[in-house]
């Protein structure tokens, strides 16, 4: 929902009903992850995507019908040899898409959710997307690949379908139908929220964790992950730009005030003048780093690099990369080893930084660095997909 938040807020504040389609589960080579969202406004405008174009036409029609009828629908889209080029996913994946009507009456808590997302306050929105084991409703023209997926309304005596619980770190809003289930779901959702996880959970009607009558979709909105770029050079500007594009909150840090300016790094969310190792240590002490944080050291100057990497390699960060030639790398490793870092800690350093793309310009180098960060996040090999078999998507 984050990617369509501006449009959804505009329609919601105007009191207009919007059809919102959300990917709640995926299998195999699905093109978009759980949480991907598409809106259909009252004026017929479509915003966002649930499949990169494969089933958007069918989802558009379904969203319009849901707004008119008012009842939410859970629809499964997949692929077979017969329907691959009709409405199915030609990529071979399977999507469960939940379509609902959104307006101030159906989602009165949305104003608080907007405020939380914009202020980077953690919040999870839990929606009951299914309440039985009957067949999935058929979208106009759409294939049903498996008929044992949860249905929209059958078998829901308590009217749980479409109910919502909004979970903050210190409170909850809304209800899923009772204190017991609200308490159980809030506890589990906070665990998912702490790890930035979005996905489905199953419960019994009264909140039993071993039950499966209710399928709940947990959409976690955590503060964006951080990218900290050290070294106010031209390569840093390109890395900051692609980091912001990938959804990171980007900080550029350098000890030289003449180079570390917002004008030179317009794509960075903040530009800090400080000694790199002191800044990183202070951020760690303040609890502003986590296991999603990536650090790119681009100074290739030992008086900055060595003390900075001593700090970074001892922190539980997602990625630590350092720019420099192979000679610089060898000298850097020797300095770090002499400073007492273990071989396991040194093995966490990506140096020279980036994948072998043959990059030459700052922009090409930034793509190389971003590719390595993505590969580290998802366990990719960096090989040509055309030479490989099996799934093209990786799980963490």
TrEMBL record:
Domain of life: Bacteria
Residues annotated as domain XdhC- CoxI: 11-78, 158-204
Classification via Pfam families: XdhC_C, XdhC_CoxI
Domain XdhC Rossmann: residue ranges: 227-373
InterPro entries in alphabetical order: MoCofactor_Util/Proc, XdhC_CoxI, XdhC_Rossmann_dom
PANTHER family on file: ALDEHYDE OXIDOREDUCTASE MOLYBDENUM COFACTOR ASSEMBLY PROTEIN, MOLYBDENUM COFACTOR INSERTION CHAPERONE PAOD
This protein's name: XdhC family protein
Organism from which the protein derives: Rugosimonospora acidiphila
